[in-house]
Amino acid sequence: xxxxxxxxxxxxxxxxxxxxxxxxxxxxxxxxxxxxxxxxxxxxxxxxxxxxxxxxxxxxxxxxxxxxxxxxxxxxxxxxxxxxxxxxxxxxxxxxxxxxxxxxxxxxxxxxxxxxxxxxxxxxxxxxxxxxxxxxxxxxxxxxxxxxxxxxxxxxxxxxxxxxxxxxxxxxxxxxxxxxxxxxxxxxxxxxxxxxxxxxxxxxxxxxxxxxxxxxxxxxxxxxxxxxxxxxxxxxxxxxxxxxxxxxxxxxxxxxxxxxxxxxxxxxxxxxxxxxxxxxxxxxxxxxxxxxxxxxxxxxxxxxxxxxxxxxxxxxxxxxxxxxxxxxxxxxxxxxxxxxxxxxxxxxxxxxxxxxxxxxxxxxxxxxxxxxxxxxxxxxxxxxxxxxxxxxxxxxxxxxxxxxxxxxxxxxxxxxxxxxxxxxxxxxxxxxxxxxxxxxxxxxxxxxxxxxxxxxxxxxxxxxxxxxxxxxxxxxxxxxxxxxxxxxxxxxxxxxxxxxxxxxxxxxxxxxxxxxxxxxxxxxxxxxxxxxxxxxxxxxxxxxxxxxx
Length: 549
Ligand code: ADP
Ligand code: MG
Description:
Elements: E1 3-6, E2 12-16, E3 21-24, H1 25-44, E4 54-57, E5 63-66, H2 69-75, H3 81-96, H4 101-120, H5 125-146, E6 148-149, H6 155-166, H7 175-189, E7 191-193, E8 196-198, E9 204-210, E10 218-220, E11 223-225, E12 237-246, H8 266-290, E13 294-297, H9 303-311, E14 315-317, H10 322-332, E15 336-337, E16 349-359, E17 362-368, E18 376-382, H11 385-408, E19 410-413, H12 417-433, H13 435-448, H14 450-458, H15 463-475, E20 482-484, E21 491-493, H16 494-497, E22 500-502, H17 503-521, E23 525-528
Parallel strand pairs: 9-18, 12-13, 12-15, 13-14
Antiparallel strand pairs: 1-2, 3-23, 4-5, 6-19, 7-8, 10-18, 11-17, 12-16, 16-17, 19-22, 20-21
Helix pairs in contact: 1-3, 1-4, 2-3, 3-4, 3-17, 4-13, 4-17, 5-12, 5-13, 5-17, 6-7, 6-11, 7-11, 8-9, 12-13, 12-15, 14-15
């Protein structure tokens, strides 16, 4: 049946292709809000240090246990378009600041819940959207106003920030150890560009290996190459290494067209082979002349070249990933050379130690003890694969928050403190705006309070009691940093208790939540093309989309 829609008088005005489904107006809004809120509800119970975990089983049966918002949304297969938008928020949050993913999704979901109530009371979505936008801007201003500067050399504070970001991760007693490593790693790759500090955590390589314990996780002042030394006759260790980084094959190029060379005389044959051999010998001589004793090659290395390199006692590895080559260059200060003819002493990188080591089952080459490397590595260890994965998520969060404060150097009080302050300011602001938008801004204020409420609820305390107490405390001058102690259910000064977060994490969470809530609210018509059948029976259309009238 072709889909047609009619005017009030029953005249067909629009004909969509067969199988197209459509839902409009309030119905479309309600469906979208509902779908998006489901995602929020899923993540809600994981928020904070006392949040619960989710067990996720993928289609291959692999199990992940975590309460990391981004990881959860990565694993679950979401189909509804509005729900997908929620997944997008988490991704944006993760890309921009690396933490606060759960916060942003839970907040967006709450904004939609409040919006739905107001829509039911007859407030038009357009008013809601403009009210929410104003509120978000005011909220960001408030965070800015409340943020306090932090000295990036104040290691104690940095440690607290890293620990707060890891508080909900299952890394137990290794927390401090991981936090210390995160700080050292980020500081090592930090760069000054003009009056800006840049700490790009892409320059920190994370290498996971099961076996040993989390406490054996270590920072490598250099990088780890997941390759073996290419020839058994080569040394496995070089101290004070001079490293050639080559982007060209150490092989004789084979001709593309199959050429035939007729050789009748054995002497001719020998001469021909000798020539090849001497060309390869010349390559090794070139490397030797430049003064290198270690070679990392992005392409292949011919057996014969390997042999000559081994004879010269040069350590070499081949087929190194391009990204690893770049990291090698940043770590050792060497230059990647694409034409062997150009190689000279000044292109060589340096490392205090290059060594092949067996980690667990695999051999890897450690390029370490580099002098002031711009790229470093962290070797993550834990007994079980699942634990190494969780350690990686914990490490990524800590690296992100430390890089956030190094670049931005402003922090806010966590444990719900900043959210209560934002809500308070928004309520004041709402009365000044007045009209129907006032209602939207007040709804926004209520929504922001979902964070402290959820932190309390997840810890097993009565959220209403705590939010009332928090509001009252924040009216007082010395109450502005008060948040929840999730272990006692009492209030505490979050700064004093060390529950500290980068201001940018909170700002971004508010921005992305408000933006996506607005985006979902503005949709009043969902027209879905029919889907091509997938497998037997095909997939059912997403819930609430069969809006035939
Ligand atoms: P997100 O993905 O949003 O970062 P988390 O599960 O990491 O979610 O929880 C972050 C929230 O937990 C923040 O609001 C933070 O202030 C709060 N939090 C972290 N540690 C503590 C603590 N020790 N006491 C109270 N709240 C905390
Ligand atoms: Mg977090």
